[in-house]
Amino acid sequence: MAEKEIDQPTGVETTGHEWDGIKELNNPLPRWWVIVFYISIIWSVIYWVFMPSWPGINGYLKGVRNHTERANVEASMAELAAARSDQMSRLLAVDNLGEIENDPELLQYTLKAGESIFGDNCATCHGAGGQGFKGYPALVDDAWLWGGSLEDIQQTIRYGIRSGHPDARLNTMQAFGRDGILSSSQISDLVEYVTSLSGREADEAAAARGAQTFAQTCATCHGPEGRGDPAQGAPNLTDHIWLYGGDKITLQETLYQGRGGVMPAWSDRLSEEQIAALAVYVHSLGGGE
């Protein structure tokens, strides 16, 4: 057996390993570390006995406590639903926004619930704050395509727009160019006229010609002055709010190929209480009507 080598400066036994003249000392582990290590081993054995641990062929070792986080979560969700049931019942009984606004507790609950539902289901398209994106309406302004009352918003959420639901909101922005309804020159004139409606610079002669085309093909939905019609979901063309963009190139595209976005119906995904809370929250984002 080889004789143990002692490092002279420290008086500590070496391991016999040496690199570039530097010898590795065989220092013992700190006592506190060893104690913690053994406690961890003991604790793991105790945990193994009492709690779910190793997987098996037909399941897993459930432990003597038969603990399951799934059951705990289900119980917590049931408790939460029971705690919310009273508020939800009160919310469904409300006939107008004024009743909610006059009940601070109910209003706070409704807005918090609606915000959570919005984040889970609506923010992907409309943005986390309801700011909207191209083709997805902003909910933070006061321009409501289908009306901004609580009833209107609930109707839109419940049945959607062009969703295929029998009660969905439905309108058609025709493809005037693609379907040969208007010529290219008529569309160009119409672009100038629509541009002028919102007070922007436009070719006056072309806008005058476009006014005649507008009266014949567009006024039925957008109104003779272009102020829109919420009953038909026709947008106001006199403001500066554009769902797909209001520059001339985008207007040309819109008139040529038409528009028709889809909002899904949420009646089969959200409860009536959730739809009511969501409508109140969306109403609060832009002031509503």
Automatic annotation (TrEMBL):
Entry GO MF terms: electron transfer activity; heme binding; iron ion binding; oxidoreductase activity
PROSITE patterns membership: CYTC
Residues reported in the UniProt entry to bind heme c 2: 173, 218, 221-222
Binding site for heme c 1: 122, 125-126, 263
Protein's GO biological process: oxidative phosphorylation; proton transmembrane transport
Parts of the chain that traverse the membrane: 32-50
GO CC annotation terms, alphabetical: plasma membrane
Annotated family: Belongs to the CcoP / FixP family.
Protein name: Cbb3-type cytochrome c oxidase subunit
Protein's job: C-type cytochrome. Part of the cbb3-type cytochrome c oxidase complex.
Cofactor remark from the record: Binds 2 heme C groups per subunit.
Keywords linked to the UniProt accession: Cell inner membrane, Cell membrane, Electron transport, Heme, Hydrogen ion transport, Ion transport, Iron, Membrane, Metal-binding, Oxidoreductase, Repeat, Respiratory chain, Transmembrane, Transmembrane helix, Transport
Pathway membership: Energy metabolism; oxidative phosphorylation
Cytochrome c domain mapped to chain residues: 109-198, 205-286
Organism whose genome encodes this protein: Hyphococcus luteus
Entry-linked InterPro entries: CcoP_N (IPR032858), CcoP_N_sf (IPR038414), Cyt_c-like_dom (IPR009056), Cyt_c-like_dom_sf (IPR036909), Cyt_C_IC (IPR008168), Cyt_c_oxidase_cbb3_su3 (IPR004678), Cytochrome_c_Oxidase_Subunit (IPR050597)
Quaternary structure note: Component of the cbb3-type cytochrome c oxidase.
Compartments reported by the entry: Cell inner membrane
Cofactor(s) the record lists: heme c
Matches recorded under Pfam families: Cytochrom_C, Cytochrome_CBB3, FixP_N
